[in-house]
Amino acid sequence: MRLGKRIDAVILSERSIIVLEFKKEQDDASARRQVEDYALDLFHFHTRSREHPIIPVLVTGGAPKLLPALPLFLGVIKPVLVVHPADLPALLSDLVERTPVPSTPLLSSAWLAGTYAPVPTIVEAACMAFARHGVAEIAEARADRRNLRETTAAIWSTVAAARRLGRHTCLFVTGIPGAGKTLCGLNAAFAPEPSLRGTFLTGNPTLVHVFREALIRDGVKQGRDRRKISADMVSVIQRLPDFRTKYLVDETEAPPEPVIVIDEAQRCWSRDYAVRKTRDKTHPLSDSEPGHLLDFMARRRDFAVIVCMVGNGQEIHDGEGGLAEWGAALRARPDWDVVAAPDTTDSADPRQCLGSLPRLRHESALHLVVPIRQIGSDAAARWVDAMLGGHPDAASAIARQAGSIPFHLTRSLDTLRLALRSAARGMRRAGLVSSSGAARLRAEGLGAELPHMDAQAVAHWFLDHFPDDVRASDALEQVATEFGVQGLELDYVGLCWDADFIRSSSQITWLSRRFVGTRWQTIRSAEAISNQINTYRVLLTRARYDTIIFVPRGNRADPTRDPDIYDQIADYLSRCGVSVVNGDGALAKPIEPQKPIPAPTRLL
Fold it and tell me: In the prediction, which pLDDT does 179 show?
């Protein structure tokens, strides 16, 4: 199983697949989630485990000596059965006898010939990349593995060439949301050759908190000292502002790392914003963040490589200069070699263009176009682009062509929570997200926002589970904003859509708004409007499986919650092909992928 997951036993009959997990005395929510998760992994990632019932069974001395009631044989993955070891033979006999006879028998030879291609979460992938000496491959279930493998190889090749030639090189990797940019960045930072390893920099504090804590927990499980691992993490994964300040203070020190990987590099501050933002600080910036970072790495006399991971349409904050700011900084420093994906110079968005550079070389392998985050659909990113672009007919056509899309609509917060809890079985993780500008969701009882600057709060939200920890995302109490989830993911997302991003009365365009005082104000700035669209793009692309969108019904007695405005949003989403969640929380479309999964391919 993926990342150390190990099924104790799988029993095949002609009628069903029985997954067994043995625990000496443990019978708790954690043990039940674990065995259910094994069953879910088989369904999602094993090609021959989708047409027959999968029955998870926890065998533990903590269970009463009483045969459990057998489940109704509806759906593929059955509820967890808990049985005492003494009663296991009788339970297995009952299961074999009482499982309905399938139209096609389950043949063990065919099942064993099936391929198993698990997809790790981004947190699991970070642990795998960091522990490269122990785990060296990641199998992707729905992605073009060659694209991801070749991108990683192109990065390593460029780093090796820079060392061989003694050059300073800036490299740009682009890609759609969920295409594996962060994974490529982690592979670059944790290169197999120790002399080429670098540090992973991000301006996203949530990413730092989650990755560091996940790597620390993983190391502790392997018997390492928590304090020592924590100290190691300071240099391995860093906040970009901390790195920047360190080398501003010491104007001569060169970074010890020959390679720095900058996650979401398009979010680096422009020159004007950086100077204005820090003019009253102890260590003010005199140039853009790209300019300073290039100068810091140029202090290395041997060689240096800056690997910039660039997300299309991911700028969500004022002052984020995009690729244009990197282009300006590189034109002022013509000695730097530049290797970039072709789309960095032909984008229609001026913020996403490097422009002309004297030492620029294009490399097609540096563009990631295949989504790997979305397990069940490769149409999700295209649908989001069409929907946000104001093209409902195109979005609806994408949904029809794909058979279904992983987006669903409800007007009830209770139904949203019910649907998320029903979907997120086993160790799958659900959570609520919303725009940071969703001020009137407070009237719906959604005023508790995840404090994304609080390392412990973030770690509990992303890494722990309810009911063991009420601070976990799947308690469905705290809402994370775009600043808390960018670069990360959940299995199932509950997106709470407020009146900060609405359809015009003519349903032709989107209108972006901010809540000031007691009323909504329309945003006029082109940059702010773009950031708002990108905010919802980030929120819509966080789910590995399904996103359930909650649009409130509003209240006519409250002018800030006009029901007509919310109805227009819901109507538009329906026109785009979003299915409606049933009142019992059941999704109108199948939540589990039905398409064949290709055989796994070894990745770097």
Answer: 67
